[in-house]
Amino acid sequence: MLEAFLAADIVPTRNLNLLYIILDCVFLAIFIGLLIWKRRFSTLIFALFGGILYTVVDFGGFYLLSHTRTVFINGELQEAWGTFWVLLWMSMSYGFTNFAFIWVLVAKDGYAKYWIFLIVMWWMICPSISELGGEATITTSRTTGAYHGWMGVALVVSYLVLIILLMRKSPKAAFVNVLRLCVIGIAVQFGWEFSLLVNGIRPMNEASIRTLIVNSCLETNLGMPLIYAIYYFWSKRFNEDLSPAKKSEEVPPCRR
After folding, report:
1. Sheet of strand 69-73, all strands in order from the earlier edge strand to the far edge
2. Would the pLDDT of 170 be above 80?
3. How many other C-beta atoms are found inside a 10 Å radius of the C-beta of residue 163?
4. What string of DSSP letters covers 106-145?
5. Nearest to 30 by CA among 55, 18, 38
6. Average pLDDT in the 23-35 region?
7. What predicted TM-score, i.e. pTM, was given to this entire model?
């Protein structure tokens, strides 16, 4: 049993239908509207940046360069154009919600509990609603063996650099709690990986649990030190509503 678990290849796969994509686009539009209403412009910019970044990595890196990403519609392997549109939606969806999730927690947003509740609730419920749209006709998958090792190297280096920087300061002057940062990085990916698995979007097989654990610990988490650095320097210049930030020694949390 253990040998099978360790030997199983990590091949993240999703099976979904068109209604899932439509519903998710509607949710994203509503979520963006709420951010604009509450003047969370920094969160919005960072979330959009996350969606664009995920698109570049997924289509440019995984599909065009490493050839590890495939998309099937009605059982037919898609060429570049069809693959791009599916990956554009998928990357913008999870990139946007992932980065919004991270930003509101790092910034200690006064409404963080509401933003996180909306995101996680949608991840868990959307697959159930999409069942009204019939069987899954869209399948995406990617192999990870070609780059997970390099992701691990990036994670170790990024946290090592952060810790070295922190060790040069006194404990009272530390500008980030490393453990909290790591927990956020793991939690955000675990949230949607778990929702995909329990809802059958990601099929259950001998590699499912390993995929859940490894991806959650590695893929988003590796960028958390850099994400915090972006937040730290951005917040020195701008408030959440993009007004100029007041100069101070500490970066103030984002309140109501």
Report:
1. 13-16, 138-142, 69-73, 76-77
2. no
3. 12
4. HTT-TTHHHHHHHHHHHHHHHHHHHGGG-S--EEEEE--T
5. 38
6. 98
7. 0.88
Q: Note whether 238 and 44 are within 8 A (CB).
A: no
Cα–Cα distance for residue pair 23/13, rounded to 1 Å = 20
pLDDT tens digit sequence for 134-146:
999 999 998 765 5
Q: Which residue has the tokens 């993009």?
A: 242
Q: How far apart are CA 228 and CA 225, in angstroms?
A: 5
Among 116, 125, 102, smallest CA distance to 26 is for 125
As a whole number, the mean pLDDT across the chain is 88
| Residues of the chain above pLDDT 90, percent | 70
Is 46 buried (19+), middle (13-18) or exposed (0-12) by CB count in 10 A? buried
User: Which are the contacts of 236, defined by CB distance < 8 A and separation ≥ 6?
Assistant: 245, 247, 251
CA distance 41 to 44: 5
The structure tokens listed for 64 are 């065009």
Buried-state track 217-233, b at ≥16 Cβ within 10 A, e below 16: bbbbbbbbbebbbebee
Task: Show the tokens assigned to 98.
Answer: 């992932």
